[in-house]
Write a structure and sequence with these properties.
heterodimer; A: ABC transporter involved in vitamin B12 uptake, BtuC; B: alpha/beta; six-stranded mixed beta sheet; four-stranded antiparallel beta sheet; 9 helices
Chain lengths: 340, 257
């Protein structure tokens, strides 16, 4: 095994870690569940305490699943965006995609509820998804001239779109009621508090759609690392690749933001961290990013719901507290790699 | 095989390429020379489909270039651009593997990679990070990658290699190695189109020389006839002398301006 064939080890290692973390996550919380009784509860054993069974089945399991899916969605969309823009700084948050999703979600909470009542809230995943898709397309067309995507324009455009989205979000806050304001806080800081099986299933469904695009992305993004012209010479249909990447990113980010709000840094840090220890080939990088993203968000969620128990910290605060310093450390130790 | 018919290309109002007619044949190394800004790279971009001609058509193997799909074309012609940047920390082996087509067997992949590593003097470089190589080493890796790409295509079909200044970053030994390797690849199924700046390398390796000046082809002939002092002096604006010894040509010029 060559030194760079570590993906053969890393992917099984990440999978095993994720399984252990998931078990710990189900057992940990304001009410501790005895690990020994967990198999019984999961098998539907009648001997298990009714209270523990309810906690596991209606709170912990959907929440653990949701944390894993959202973390996987954010990290893999970060890996795809970085590959698409050929830039290790691209991230659903930095390039304004998630701000578009948040704006759409907040608009649904405030305007939707005013006009359509409670049914609007059920449309949230759909509107957040559309918001993310529209922002991605807008940003992409701003950054692309004569078939070439300019990365600096993309990052600056992302900042501008983010600012505009934030201003519009501000207007909506101004119009909102107390209740709507509380719901908005949930979006802006991110939380997995309202996890349900339905939410987990909807993210899972979007992830399945995105998964269908993985073969196109894995083959194309590797070659795109050499530039658009070179990728074209190597038989990649650049237009199809870009559209697949945009749709996959919008599906993943849109779905994640819709159910959990804007959770930062996972999409930026995870692919970057992985490229330091494994091959940057997207065939391995995208699934490894999904696994590590799931692990990190699960860990962050455990911290968020236990550190100030029985109260709960918004998860966005935890990921920013952990992700910020890690990102700085990566910048400081890998200046050369980033700049070449 | 590759035919350009009355091809022109304009950028805004500026005519970069005007009424070019050209035929590239397999089993031939066609070298393109000309001063900076003459239109050599633009010609290569037109022939490889990166740019679309504003007038005229380009045909490859009986079909207009527009009728080829990207994947099909990739097995039949490979291109090395003048400058290629790579983001993300790929190893040499991974960069070369990018040239491999989908669906070829693991054994074939191994054989092809082993072969190109040897041809371009890259044995022992497989696991090194591409970003940490010198300019010349990077260039050889890219050459290995594009040759790899052609080796994956159907064996009996005609193929072309397009190289834009492939030896500009290389020391003399590797300039010779690379151009000799390209010559060795020539066959009734494979032709090469190479842009060079060094006229003596053109004289040493070309079968055919195309001289481009101000967007037009001023000469397209076998090497011995194309490289003559009069044409070269006019095109490059420097007094040039061509010494002849049988099939060999040696170009000299006054270095004091």
């Amino acid at each position: 095994m060559g030194p760079r064939e570590q993906h053969l080890l890393i992917i099984p290692l990440l999978t095993a870690t994720l399984v252990v973390m998931a078990v710990v996550s189900v057992a940990t919380g304001a009410v501790a569940i005895d690990l020994a009784s967990l198999p019984g509860i999961l098998m539907g054993n009648a001997d298990a305490a009714a209270r523990d069974s309810v906690i596991v089945w209606s709170v912990r399991l959907p929440r653990t699943l949701l944390a894993m899916l959202v973390g996987a969605a954010l990290a893999s969309s970060g890996a795809i965006l970085q590959g698409l823009f050929r830039n290790p700084l691209a991230d659903p948050g930095l390039v304004g995609v998630s701000s578009g999703s948040v704006l759409a979600a907040v608009a649904t909470i405030v305007l939707g509820q005013n006009y359509f009542g409670e049914t609007a809230t059920r449309l949230l995943p759909v509107t957040a998804f559309i918001g993310g898709l529209l922002t991605t397309i807008l940003l992409y067309s701003i950054a692309t001239r004569d078939g070439r995507t300019y990365t600096a324009t993309m990052l600056l455009g992302g900042i501008a779109i983010g600012a505009i989205a934030m201003a519009l979000t501000g207007v909506l806050i101004f119009m909102s009621t107390e209740q709507q304001l509380r719901e908005f806080t949930f979006w802006s800081l991110g939380s997995l508090g309202g996890a349900t099986w339905a939410k987990a299933a909807s993210v899972g469904l979007f992830m399945l759609f995105a998964l269908c695009l993985w073969p196109i992305l894995a083959r194309g993004l590797d070659r795109l690392a050499l530039g658009e012209a070179e990728a074209g010479h190597m038989g990649i249909n650049i237009q199809i690749l870009k559209r697949a990447a945009i749709v996959a990113t919008a599906l993943l980010t849109g779905a994640a933001v819709a159910v959990s709000g804007a959770i930062g840094f996972i999409g930026l840090v995870v692919p970057h961290l992985l490229r330091l220890i494994m091959s940057p080939r997207h065939r391995f990088l995208i699934p490894a990013a999904a696994l590590l993203g799931a692990i990190l968000l699960l860990a962050a969620d455990m911290i968020a719901r236990t550190i100030v128990a029985p109260a709960e910290l918004p998860i966005g605060i935890v990921t920013a507290c952990l992700g910020g310093p890690v990102f700085l450390w990566m910048l400081l130790t890998n200046v050369r790699q980033i700049e070449t | 095989m590759f035919h350009a018919f009355d091809v022109s290309f304009a950028r805004g109002r500026r005519q970069v390429i005007a009424d070019m007619n050209l035929e590239l044949r397999t089993d031939e190394l066609t070298v393109v020379i000309g001063p900076n800004g003459a239109g050599k790279s633009t010609l290569l971009k037109l022939l490889t489909g990166v740019l679309k001609p504003s007038a005229g058509t380009i045909w490859f193997d009986g079909r207009s270039l527009q009728q080829w799909n990207a994947r099909e074309l990739a097995g039949r012609r490979a291109v090395l651009s003048q400058s290629t940047s790579l983001v993300f920390p790929f190893t040499v082996h991974e960069v070369i593997s990018l040239g491999l087509a989908e669906g070829i067997s693991v054994q074939d992949k191994r054989t092809i990679i082993h072969e190109v590593l040897h041809v371009f003097d890259l044995n022992g470089f497989e696991h090194r990070l591409f970003q940490e190589l010198s300019g010349g080493e990077k260039q050889r890796v890219h050459l290995a990658r594009v040759v790899c790409q052609l080796k994956c295509g159907e064996a009996e079909k005609p193929k072309f290699l397009f190289l834009d200044e492939p030896v500009s970053n290389l020391d003399i030994k590797h300039q010779i190695n690379v151009l000799s390797a390209v010559r060795k690849l020539l066959s009734p199924q494979l032709g090469a189109f190479v842009i060079l700046h060094d006229l003596n390398l053109a004289a040493a390796y070309a079968d055919r020389v195309v001289i481009v000046h101000e967007g037009r082809i001023v000469s397209n002939d076998v090497m011995a006839r194309a490289l003559n002092g009069k044409t070269l002096s006019v095109v490059f604006g420097v007094d040039m002398h061509v010494s002849k010894a049988g099939m060999w040509r040696r170009i000299s010029y006054n270095t004091r301006g």
